[in-house]
Design goal:
With 390 residues, the protein is of the alpha/beta class. It has helices at residues 8-26, 36-49, 60-70, 87-95, 114-126, 148-157, 214-223, 245-255, 258-279, 315-324, 354-362, 374-389, and strands at residues 53-57, 78-81, 99-102, 133-136, 161-165, 173-175, 180-182, 189-193, 207-211, 228-230, 233-234, 287-288, 308-312, 363-366. The protein starts with 7 loop residues before the first helix and ends with a helix.
Length: 390
Amino acid sequence: MKVPLLDLNAQYASIEDEISQKIHDFIPEQRFILGPEVEKLEEELAEYSRARFAVGVSSGSDALIISLMALGIKKGDTVVTTPFTFFATVGAVSRLGARTVFCDIDPINFNMDPLSFKKVVEDKMNRNQNGNVKAVIPIHLFGQCADMKEILSYSDEYQIQVIEDAAQSIGADCPFPTEVRRAGSMGDMSIFSFFPTKNLGGYGDGGMVLTHDEGLAEKLKKLRIHGSSDKYFYELVGGNFRLDALQAVILRVKLKYLDEWHKKRQNNADYYDRVFFESGLTQSRNIQTPKAVFKDSGVENYHTYNQYVIRAVKRDELQQYLKEKNIGTAVYYPLPLHLQKCFSDLGYQKGAFPESEKASNEVLAIPVYPELTQNMQDYVVSSIIEFYRS
């Protein structure tokens, strides 16, 4: 049996007729840059994510860059984030000449540890450097939100702007004492990625920035077209950060199915949790299944499982064994960013962030996409059992 990590062909087959018809109707209009389809997607995603404004941009990576630009992050400023994430989070900071300061992750959910964030900021304060800490980027990794209640509390206390990196967690909910808030609605700015492998993926690159601030939304719209509001007249130095209208057409179709796909991912994750426990693998601690930290809080979209990530003993050997069994896997991420050569100027050494480094040595994503069958899941689990028994 062959079990890919993700099967986009299966997803396409389920919506092919609708996608084809929408594209067929759109092409004759010949309006490929911004326009009504982008505007409608922005309105629909703002409503879905419970944000006031959404601005479509060219990619999730560009969404991070343009968000930092809109907040005025520049050379000499400091941005706090975690090293256990995709390159784009820190790459955006570096490209603007700002400096990244890392804090460690929570070993349970792989997201920013609020106490580690607080400690980093207080350390900067003790050295009279807090004025340079302008922003924090908590990452909602793999499909669930970071502990935003605590992160927002500390960022408010120290007057630090918040950019949610929700590239992997569109639709995920976060419980607060008196309400439930959604990924994309909690920061000063928030970003999504529509890379094809995301839960809401386009047929190419695309991204979105969300905010409650009308002034920031207007600034983003200028920045994405080189800094202009009137053609050939420029108020800011921006860039070409526009979302293609064709991608908006496709994403508007797929958005209607997103919650249904999330539910199927959650069902697949629940099944994995149960059969891994029944097999004894979790009790033996050969593997640890992902912890959905908000599952018992009554939140429906407690985890949207962009990835189902286990921790595994002898991870690399297990991955090779599963490859031989035609089972797709991936390691997100094999080397934390503070140890990457391109960020060596930040001055971090091995051992600086033990939880991030430990995760990089243990994590393994296995298939969890909506079209996955139970037989396919059983094959994945039985293959993992075989590996540890041998």
